[in-house]
Amino acid sequence: MIERYLDLEFRSHEGYLTKNYSYYLKEFDALAAEVSNVSIVTKELFTAWDLLKPYHSNRTKIQRHNTIRAFSAFAYGQDGISYVPDTSRLKNNSSFVPHIFTADEVQRLFTAADNLPFRKNAPTRHLVIPTVIRLLYCCGFRINEVLRLKMEDVDLMGGIITVYNGKGGKDRFVPVHDSIVEYLANYSAQLPEAREWFFPSAYGHYSSNTIYENFRELLFLSGIPHTGNGPRVHDLRHTFAVHTLEKQLSEGYDPMVIVPRLAAYLGHRSYRETCWYIHLTVGSFPELSQKLDAVFAGIIPVVGGESIEEN
Length: 311
Description:
The chain is built from 14 helices and five strands. It is mainly alpha-helical.
């Protein structure tokens, strides 16, 4: 049954990270052979799985739990008897708050990126890193959405970037400001036209790990302290959301117009995800919180609610 569930095409269409799911399911299969050696998911087996690695962070525990819960639901659909825990079994009690970069910090990051020196072992780094950082902040992309862009996905004439098979298997069109289109055109003109990836490396396209390493360097060069909790690359996406809210509210836009539009632009599957995003990002912005609470009272979630992955 696990082999059928792990069918790569099936899982990829649902937007899952196949590598992690495969690892967890194989680990769960080994535990099942040790604990019960039966062909169904039992409550006892699921409890043993949740308790297997108590040293993990709460976030990792939730990810492991939700992975096997999804498999249990699949198994129940096949055998009608496998145990499926309800969604309240694990809660996200994290008090984590993302770093919202100030306008000055963003400018310092841009300046540091623009002055990265050329490296023989990474001949496109001084071009790729400044462009990636701008797309993350100016358009609110997820890092892997940017790195997986192919040449045909970036329409410089129309000013549209197309994201294929984003999180949740969603495709979306992302309109890009004229200033960013001009920047992308200047960047692309300095690289071979006949290339597959918009951000090429010697091994295909740039990896997220490479971006993370360079981002840490940019933080150091910008004089922005880094602790165990960040700032992270993903915080540029949060910053985009907050700065967009600030700007559009100050221009008098109706929050009931801003939030659905922001949800579509960010590629969220539901308003609930966007409301959770707002909760994380505007906690330190009382003026924003007051304006949004007046319209969305009771909708913005509180800390400790059900887990939502980084979106």
